[in-house]
Design goal:
With 795 residues, the protein is mainly β. Helices cover 2% and strands 46% of the residues. The protein starts with 6 loop residues before the first helix and ends with a strand.
Length: 795
């Protein structure tokens, strides 16, 4: 068994490393002229007990500049220190924090004639401190006396530590670990055993953070806490602190919001809180309020914050876990609730299966957005919401009739993946809905070659789910279906394939905007009383499982954001920019973006249409060969506006502006996409005053076009993408290697293919190289026309 190192020696090392003493200057034993300003790579211990004198020992082969220390500063005046010894490779400090200093982390630094060291963190605690010396060997045991705060390190890989301690019957011990929260690389797992080796409890994380365990000792005796890394990793950077005792720990609070100008009763969640469980809080104005907690009486893992609003919000009242007991609210409304059964016989209960029901009235055709705020406010609750009839039966949203069966092949997919490979994909089309075990996705792009799959519609790189279904993982060979939506009650003609009812319900937001919180877009099928049911998807219940339930009328809206607002472009070439729309409350129509006031010598794609159901469109900024870098005044005159129709009304909004347009050096590669003309395969420079060339294609048609390059320093292979094509128009037959022009060649014929359903449209597209700075071409107008000739091109 390893003995713990003397606390005073170890505390001295921490203070030196962190640098937090106020204006204490002490002569050092070794006063030779230092070669560099102070620095430190290791110190022991990392924490001190307030009210006790502690020695900090700083040492290590990588330590430099510790000779001739002359100054020591702390970030708080209640921490005092003295330099007892300073040598080239080690130093010793004596540090004291007054007894009433609030526990927490503080900074300190020290200096010599060459300058001041970087600031480091020193932790001040109200518990006795103990620690493992870095000289200890692999897999050690330590005897500690509770209460205690123990510091250790899992070094080397595979290292583990065991704390042995005595406890008495009925002690409500808390085991509180700090590792990643204080900058460690360790992912700690703690396991509690009794003296006979029986496993009593285990934890590898609490509320998304480091482990926290609360355990009531069943019998007096000796116990062991095993500390390890979940992946068996280890190094000097895999340090940790575990505090053990019957101290109170705050893990959450309720309610999440209070009204401005009022005093509300704040209830804390946690362990061993006793009389400190609730207290009044006054909120003077709207915003985020950091609740002041007495750190001498309560330990906290993170600050307690509450949202202050100007509106009245309901507080959930139990019991409300059945339709007959549903709490009545008047929509629109906001409710503060918890998935928790509360107190029973004076004791806290934490039972599985709690659910909250709320009753509200809606008129036929009313459109409501019903959502939860839980994860977004730091709650560990994973909500699910459902809309029910007054008798508790779910409200049917639509029927999905399968028209083509299939199954997932090649590999399974998780809840994020935006592509999938399935059987019989040749019999499917873009924009069709695919049903995968309760989730409904929509096909955005067909396979582009023999080694690719479907691309689903996405948001932020994650696939979107439709009709408020929730994204989930799907296994290899899981069945899937192409489905068609129908209103509830529709008499469907049987086709031998299943029909799937979809209800007004949501676990995780299918639009991927609000994380694990839930959102349902509810259209009342008739006038009457409806219920909202809120529950945890894991069927868990806990006093920390707080949420806000928001019931509001839908207000369709949009906003558009410009990406790459400070572009760099080469003369005679182009660069890409993006436009992203944020759609709110079911708005799903076209958004047209117009760009005016473009500086002389430049061209920008305009107009750009973000098509209905899509979230992004791209454009090209092109500079003429003789362009001059525009001044800030010229760039400021660029105006970007977005226009759409909402509920029959035209709505126009400003888009964020371009900042600075920088002109780069002459390009090593210029690229072009042009109508196919067999007699003209070579690159032709374009001027920004020219009208874009046009290509006309009919739905269902395959049409050749040219890709061309002009090389001026880039002689290697060039790979391409063709961007901002109308949805349903793709580059066909790209092969295993994609679209490319080989080395020493300057043109290639590719083929555009339009799906049969593509509507008539005009859209500015461009090609982009993936080498030599990713230059784009001058845009070309793609026109989709039903009466297009077999090949139509204009130059």
């Amino acid at each position: 068994m390893k003995a713990t190192t003397n606390i005073l020696v170890q505390l001295a090392a921490i203070a030196l490393a962190v640098g937090l003493l106020p204006n204490v200057v002490v002569a050092a034993e070794e006063m030779k002229e230092p070669s560099a300003k102070p620095s430190i790579s290791r110190f022991e211990p990392r924490s001190i007990e307030r009210g006790a004198e502690t020695l900090l020992h700083i040492q290590g082969d990588q330590l430099i500049g510790l000779s001739g220390l002359s100054g020591l500063k702390f970030s708080h005046e209640k921490i005092k220190g003295e330099i007892l010894e300073s040598k080239s490779k080690e130093a010793l400090l004596k540090v004291t924090a007054v007894a009433d200093l609030a526990p927490g982390s503080y900074e300190f630094s020290f200096s010599n004639s060459k300058g001041e060291s970087p600031k480091a963190k020193l932790f001040v605690d109200d518990l006795p401190q103990s620690w493992e010396s870095h000289t200890n060997s692999h897999a050690a045991s330590f005897s500690v006396k509770v209460p205690v705060s123990f510091w250790g390190a899992l070094d080397p890989a595979g290292d583990s530590d065991i704390l042995e301690f005595a406890a008495e019957t009925g002690q409500r011990l808390v085991f509180d670990v700090a590792a990643k929260s204080i900058g460690s690389k360790a992912g700690i797992l703690i396991t509690l055993f009794d003296a006979k080796g029986n496993l009593l409890a285990q934890n590898n994380g609490f509320g998304g953070g480091d482990p926290l365990l609360h355990y009531v000792i069943p019998a007096s005796g000796h116990y062991r806490l095993h500390i390890s890394d979940q992946t068996l990793a280890g190094s000097a950077e895999h340090f940790y602190r575990v505090s053990i005792g019957e101290f109170p720990v705050v893990t959450g609070s309720f309610p999440m919001t209070i009204k401005a100008g009022t005093t509300a009763e704040m209830e804390l969640a946690g362990f061993n809180l006793g009389q400190h469980r609730s207290f009044p809080v006054f909120a003077d104005k709207a915003g985020e309020l950091k609740v002041r907690i007495d750190r001498d009486k309560l330990r906290m893992r993170k600050p307690v914050q509450v949202m202050v609003t100007e509106q009245n919000e309901y507080i959930e009242k139990e019991p409300n876990d059945s339709p007959a007991r549903a709490m009545r609210i008047a929509a629109p409304a906001v409710v503060n609730g918890r998935i928790w059964n509360g107190y029973a016989s004076g004791k806290i209960t934490s039972q599985a299966g709690d659910e909250d029901l709320f009753q509200f009235e809606a008129a036929k055709g009313d459109v409501w957005v019903i959502e939860t705020e839980a994860e977004r406010r730091g709650s560990p609750l994973d909500t699910k919401i459902e809309i029910l009839h007054a008798d508790g039966k779910p409200v049917e949203r639509l029927l999905l009739q399968a028209v083509r069966d299939s199954q997932i092949n090649f590999r399974p997919i998780d809840s994020v993946t935006g592509d999938v490979r399935v059987e019989n994909w040749e019999e499917m089309e873009l924009n069709q809905f695919m049903y995968l075990g309760g989730e409904v996705c929509k096909i955005f792009r067909m396979p582009e070659g023999p080694d690719s799959g479907f691309q689903f519609y996405r948001n932020g790189g994650k696939r979107r789910s439709y009709f408020d279904t929730s994204p989930t993982a799907h296994a290899l060979d899981d069945p899937c279906y192409i489905v068609e939506p129908h209103p509830p009650g529709t008499q469907l003609v049987p086709n031998g394939l299943p029909v799937f009812p979809v209800y007004f319900a949501n676990d995780d937001d299918g639009e991927r905007k609000i994380g694990a919180d839930s959102r349902v877009h509810f259209t009342a099928p008739q006038s009457g009383t409806f219920l909202i049911r809120v529950q945890d998807t894991r069927d868990q219940s806990d006093e920390r499982f707080a949420y806000r339930l928001i019931v509001r009328r839908a207000e369709p809206d949009f906003s558009v954001r410009l990406g790459n607002p400070n572009p760099t472009v080469s003369p005679g070439s182009g660069t890409e920019f993006s436009l992203t729309v944020d759609r709110e409350d079911g708005f799903d129509e076209n958004v047209r973006v117009d760009i005016t006031g473009v500086p002389e010598g430049f061209y920008m794609s305009s107009p750009i249409v973000i098509q209905a159901g899509h979230l992004q469109a791209n454009g090209a900024l092109f500079a003429s060969p003789d362009a001059k870098e525009p001044a800030a005044e010229a760039t400021s005159k660029i105006k970007i506006t977005a226009t759409a129709t909402i509920a029959g009304k035209t709505v126009t909004k400003d888009v964020n502006k371009f900042g600075k347009i920088k002109l780069a050096e002459k390009p090593k590669l210029m690229v072009a996409i042009e109508p196919y003309n067999e007699s003209n395969p070579h690159f032709t420079p374009r001027n920004v005053t020219d009208e874009p060339l046009s290509v006309t294609i009919a739905p269902g048609q395959i049409l050749p076009v040219w890709l061309k390059v002009k090389r001026d320093g880039h002689d290697d292979i060039v790979t391409f993408s063709v961007d901002n094509l109308p949805h349903g128009v793709i580059v066909d037959n790209i092969g295993l290697n994609g679209v490319l022009i080989p080395k020493d060649e300057d043109h290639r014929q590719i083929f555009l293919k339009a799906a049969k359903w593509v509507p008539e449209t005009d859209r500015l597209a461009y090609c982009q190289a993936r080498q030599a700075g990713n230059p784009t071409s001058f845009p070309v107008m793609i026109r989709v026309r039903k009466d297009a000739n077999s090949v139509v091109a204009s130059q």
